[in-house]
Amino acid sequence: MRIDVIAALPDIVRGPIQHSIVGRAQDKGAVEIEVHDLREFAEGKHRQIDDYPFGGGAGMVLKPEPIFASIDAIKDAHGEPDEVIFLTPDGEPFDQPMANRLSMAEHLVLLAGHYKGVDQRVRDELVTLEVSIGDYVLSGGELPALVLIDAVARLQPGVLGDASSALTDSFQDGLLDAPVYTRPAEYRGLRVPPVLRSGNHAAITEWRDTVRIEKTRRRRPDLLEDPAAETG
Ligand code: ADE
């Protein structure tokens, strides 16, 4: 898949994508990521990308022209993307089902805003999906764009070493993960649960299932709620 990122602060995105799973996904050709500097699409001596809000108020607003120009250039070079995603705290909550769905796209464009926001005409005319990574406000969309890229890149075929490991992640089946242990079997008097060393795979699976349900009930009871039960 191809991912184009348009950012006011592109270096925040360029560093981290070289490393770990996302770096490997690019090395393997599973994901091609290009990070575009919004300022390079701005006109004038100062290449201004933001301006004061009409009607007053705090903070600067990203101007429409550089964003329209950047997305036009990406569409001219690579065709119509599956989604143009704007990262914003008032977007749709990002979760594993959304990551799964987006991982099947061939081409995503991510727009990472900064300052107070982006001119609404960009959102009305260009953006097809608005995404929030959580109920807190960050200084810009660059870190949320990295979060989305990581979640989507690791789902590309051949990227994870163990082909089944994405399937056993927390949330893939709606439950949190069971605890994991490695050697030594005893450390500072703390023992690994004996069942994990028993070699009894049926017992291990049963233990993991029980612990996962218990942990989910304690930490994230919302994940166990039956959506069908939520009637008017
Ligand atoms: N930009 C600033 N905060 C954000 C958030 N929580 N999610 C997505 N984009 C953002």
TrEMBL record:
Domain tRNA methyltransferase TRMD/TRM10-type: 1-225
Superkingdom of source: Bacteria
Record's keyword annotation contains 4Fe-4S: no
Positions that bind S-adenosyl-L-methionine: G113, I133, G134, D135, Y136, V137, L138
Molecular-function annotations in GO: tRNA (guanine(37)-N1)-methyltransferase activity
Keywords: Cytoplasm, Methyltransferase, S-adenosyl-L-methionine, Transferase, tRNA processing
Record-stated family: Belongs to the RNA methyltransferase TrmD family.
Quaternary structure (record): Homodimer.
Protein name: tRNA (guanine-N(1)-)-methyltransferase
Provenance organism: Longibacter salinarum
